[in-house]
C-alpha cells in the first residue's frame, strides 16, 4: 500500500521500534540508513535510551536538519545523527556525574562510541563539543555548525524556541511520533540529576 504524503515509505531497517518508523521515513533520516556509522548510532540509541528520549533524539536531528536545509548550511550529517543519538545518554544509567553534569557524561559516551568506530580526532572534537554544549542557553560565538544545529533542534523540540525558523515542523513530527508530557518529565530528570550529582537509579528492595 502506498504511503500518504505525511507518512513516507520507510526502508526496511532491522531491529528498531515501530514508534521510530514514521521518523526514519523522513528523507533526512532515510538517506542515512545505509551508512554504517548511522546504523551503529541507531543501535546504540535503542540500547541506551528509554523510548521517549529516543524519539526526542530523532526529532532533534530532524529539526536540526530542517534548519540546515532552510539556511543552506553544510554540516556533518552522519556525525550530527550520532551526536543527537547520544546527546541525552548521560541522563540514563547509574553513573556519578562529574564536573559538567549530564551533558559532559553524554559527550564522553559519544567520544567512546566515535573512537570505537575510528572517527578522526577533529571530527570527534566538533561532535562531542556539540553534545557538551547543547544545554547552554545559547550556542557559543565560536560554535561550529554541528553545535549550533544540535542546540537548535534540542531546544526547539523541548521548548518550542526557534519555531519561526522552521514553521510547522515541530508539530508535524510530534504528531507522528508523540511523547506526551516529555518536556515536564525531561525537566524533572535534569533537575534531579543536578541536585544529586548522580543519576537516579531504581529503588532498592529491602530484604
Description:
It contains 10 helices and no strands. The longest helix is centred in the N-terminal third of the chain and has 21 residues. It is mainly alpha-helical and 207 residues long. The chain is globular and about 40 Å long.
Write the layout of secondary structure elements.
Elements: H1 21-24, H2 27-30, H3 36-48, H4 51-71, H5 77-86, H6 101-116, H7 121-132, H8 145-159, H9 169-176, H10 182-196
Helix pairs in contact: 3-5, 4-5, 4-8, 5-7, 5-8, 6-7, 7-8
From the structure above, extract its key features.
0% strand, disordered N terminus, 10 helices, 207 residues, mainly alpha
Number of strands: 0
| Alpha carbon gyration radius | 17 Å
Number of helices: 10
Tell me the β content.
Answer: under 5%
The profile of the biggest β sheet is: none
Briefly, what is this?
With 207 residues, the protein is mostly helical. The protein has helices at residues 21-24, 27-30, 36-48, 51-71, 77-86, 101-116, 121-132, 145-159, 169-176, 182-196.
